[in-house]
Automatic annotation (TrEMBL), chain A:
Annotated family: Belongs to the complex I 24 kDa subunit family.
Biological source species: Hymenobacter arizonensis
Protein name in the entry: NADH dehydrogenase subunit E
Annotated binding of [2Fe-2S] cluster, by residue: 93, 98, 134, 138
Named cofactor requirement(s): [2Fe-2S] cluster
Example GO molecular function: NADH dehydrogenase activity
The UniProt record lists the keyword Iron-sulfur: yes
Keyword Iron in record: yes
Pfam families: 2Fe-2S_thioredx
SUPFAM superfamilies reported in the protein's UniProt record: Thioredoxin-like (SSF52833)
UniProtKB/TrEMBL annotation, chain B:
PROSITE patterns: COMPLEX1_51K_1, COMPLEX1_51K_2
Keyword field: 4Fe-4S, Flavoprotein, FMN, Iron, Iron-sulfur, Metal-binding, NAD, Quinone, Translocase
EC number per UniProt: 7.1.1.-
All copies of domain NADH-ubiquinone oxidoreductase 51kDa subunit iron-sulphur binding, residue ranges: 340-385
Organism, scientific name: Hymenobacter arizonensis (Siccationidurans arizonensis)
Protein family membership: Belongs to the complex I 51 kDa subunit family.
Keyword Iron-sulfur: yes
Functional note: NDH-1 shuttles electrons from NADH, via FMN and iron-sulfur (Fe-S) centers, to quinones in the respiratory chain.
A single BP term in Gene Ontology: cellular respiration
Protein name: NADH-quinone oxidoreductase subunit F
GO molecular function: 4 iron, 4 sulfur cluster binding; FMN binding; metal ion binding; NAD binding; NADH dehydrogenase (ubiquinone) activity; NADH dehydrogenase activity; quinone binding
Length: 190, 446
């Protein structure tokens, strides 16, 4: 039998702590609550793509605010996942302009090949499918966002396969340094 | 081919770096403003330019700037609205990723004009990768002495920061944006007080769209009068149009205001016509919130004049036969499009994005989504068509922010011009709900 231990309290990594410290310099000293949204982004990237109540409490402690001030914000903004997610969260845009270019068909296709249903995770834990509203890339529809990356013009099975192949070997890192940020293809060929 | 005031150098290799941007004339407006102009003179040039807010409302920027309260010893802020979320609109993302320094240059010149010592760019959380591009560019601008203490020895100091949202359309509304920037839920504030008096941290604040701020450098460089020579009437300058939907060449186009809509859709210089050789059915010309128009009314006004890409021409005929330029999110729909389905999709969006503060919007958007869902799926009645018009009317004007109107207008306009298509879903549900079904009857023009 596995020895039982009390769940350990989550802690930010040194890199995350440094980033939080930098963010806090952006706001007046008595307005540090402003850093709540960016810190929740860091927390979500740091702790497996979602923010558990424990992680939210850690954020509250970091900002010296009440936990409820974090909960009311995390439950308002749709990017924060409040339940465990798979390794990759595929956020599929479902709004008008994407629908005109085949987002319904894309969603069905993704459900078929990943084995996940919208709102759920595939049995092997690899993919979570999440329908989202307009991602501001309507000219390159249909679109899927995975963490910070946009996959665009997913209107052929080949384009979808290429995305899934890339994701197979992709390991999400907690904080992506801006030096390594890549432009989506469409932006390269404006 | 019109002039490109914002995007002339967008394809230059390395234009996202400080050095290349500077070589192509970048940051000249900061030098000119800080060394040779007073803040009020910069405001005056922006007033003369006739520049209007590019986020959707089209309010004169110079006038907005002149409303800013300037009490002694109280900090004031310039906040850039980069929360681009209006369905059909994707210009700011493109502009910021490719030309981050253009926005930063505009922020410096604008902050100087308004007397702001700290400014923020509030960017939607989905665009974290663009936030990183901007942060890199901002670091370069600090290193080059264009940000920070005593810029270019002028005595003027400015700090500029980027702040992410986290998925909420409502944060594009300026007071919701400010709440969000303060680390709260994005609930719009009651007005007055307006942000110009009590904005960020209850200090005087101006909130401007990315494209608006990006137009400031050219106005400072060439003068407001020169800028105002471009365009037609009160629609001065250039506008970025996000073209999407069923077009051969969707993408971002910088146009001189005044291009005929027909030319914009069909000419190879712009969208290259409707895809798959199909016919155009309808256009939503300024982002999902503005009234949809059938082909006949988007190409020509009710009086038979050519419709132009200007604030005035697109709104000719009011909401009976016209629409709005809005954010420039230009969504084209071909003859196979189901207007009922599209309207339901938009209503689902607004229901999803309503912050829930005002009951007419919170409840009304839910009703719209639900009733449109049953109409689209062949379970609706004739009464339902009047019901959605009535619900839309009851939301409009009864909420503290414009999301209510944004949710109501697309529904009223769709029923106004495509009532027969809604009725067809009621009378011929089997046919209307068959896969790929599309109503081909004539729209209602007036």
């Amino acid at each position: 039998m596995e020895p039982t231990t009390a769940p350990t309290k989550p802690q930010f990594s040194p890199a995350a702590q440094a980033e939080i410290k930098r963010l806090l310099t952006h706001y007046p000293e008595d307005k540090s609550k402003s850093a709540l949204l960016p810190i929740l982004h860091i927390a979500q990237a740091e702790f497996g793509g979602w923010v558990s109540p424990e992680v939210q409490d850690l954020v509250a402690e970091t900002l010296k605010i009440k936990p409820i001030e974090v909960y009311e914000v995390s439950s308002f903004y749709t990017q924060y996942n409040l339940k465990p997610v798979g390794k990759h969260v595929l956020e599929i845009c479902r709004t008008g302009p994407c629908m005109l270019r085949g987002s319904d068909e894309l969603t069905e296709h993704l459900e078929r090949i990943t084995g996940a249903k919208v709102g759920g995770t595939s049995p092997d834990g690899t993919f979570t499918l999440k329908e989202v509203e307009c991602l501001a890339a309507c000219g390159f529809a249909p679109i899927v966002q995975v963490r910070e990356k946009y996959y665009e013009q997913l209107d052929t099975p080949e384009a979808v396969d290429a995305m899934l192949n890339e994701l197979k070997s992709l390991v999400h890192r907690p904080i992506l340094p801006w030096e390594e940020t890549e432009l989506p293809n469409s932006l390269k060929n404006y | 081919m019109g002039r490109k005031l914002l995007t002339e150098h967008i394809n230059v290799e390395g234009i996202d770096t400080f050095d290349v941007y500077r070589k192509h004339g970048g940051y000249r407006s900061v030098e000119k403003a800080l060394k040779t102009m007073t803040p009020d003179e910069v405001v005056e040039e922006v007033k003369k330019s006739g520049l209007r807010g590019r986020g959707g409302a089209g309010f004169p920027t110079g006038m907005k700037w002149s409303f800013l309260a300037k009490p002694e010893g109280v900090p004031r802020y310039l906040v850039c609205n980069a929360d681009e979320s209006e369905p059909g609109t994707f210009k700011d993302r493109q502009l910021m990723s490719k030309l981050p320094h253009l926005l930063i240059e505009g922020m410096i010149a604008g902050s100087y004009a308004l007397g702001a010592r700290t400014s923020y760019i509030y960017i939607r959380g989905e665009l974290l990768y663009v936030l990183r591009i901007l942060e890199k560019a901002i670091a370069e601008a600090y290193a080059a002495g264009f940000l920070g203490e005593n810029i270019l020895g002028s005595g003027y100091s400015l700090d500029l920061h980027v702040h992410p949202g986290a998925g909420a359309y409502i944060c594009g509304e300026e007071t919701a944006l400010l709440e969000s920037l303060e680390g709260k839920r994005g609930n719009p504030r009651n007005k007055p007080p307006f942000p110009a008096v009590q904005g960020l941290y209850a200090r005087p604040t101006v909130v401007n769209n990315v494209e608006t701020i990006a137009a400031v450098p050219v106005i400072v460089n060439e003068g407001g009068d020169e800028y105002a020579k471009i365009g037609v009437g009160k629609s001065t300058g250039t506008k970025l149009i996000s073209a999407c939907g069923h077009l051969n060449k969707p993408g971002i186009y910088e146009i001189e205001l005044g291009v005929p809509v027909e030319e914009f859709i069909y000419s190879d210089e712009y969208c290259g016509g409707i895809w798959k050789g199909r016919d155009l059915k309808a256009v939503v010309a300024g982002g999902s919130s503005v009234p949809i128009l059938p082909k006949e009314l988007i190409l020509k006004t009710a009086a038979g004049e050519n419709r132009l890409m200007t604030y005035e021409s697109l709104s000719d005929g009011g909401f009976i036969t016209g629409t709005m330029l809005g954010s420039g999110g230009f969504i084209a729909m071909d003859e196979t499009t189901c207007i009922v389905k599209n309207t339901w999709n938009f209503s689902r969006f607004y229901h999803h994005e309503s912050c829930g503060q005002c009951s007419p919007c919170r409840e009304g958007t839910g009703w719209l989504e639900k009733v449109l869902h049953r109409l689209e799926h062949g379970h609706g009645s004739m009464h339902d068509i009047d019901l959605i018009v009535s619900v839309a009317k009851q939301i409009e004007g009864n909420t503290i922010c414009p999301l209510g109107e944004a949710a109501a207008w697309p529904v009223s306009a769709a029923v106004r011009h495509f009532r027969h298509e809604f009725e067809w879903h009621v009378t011929n549900p089997k046919e209307a709900t068959a896969p790929g079904a599309a109503y081909r009857g004539a729209p209602v023009l007036a």
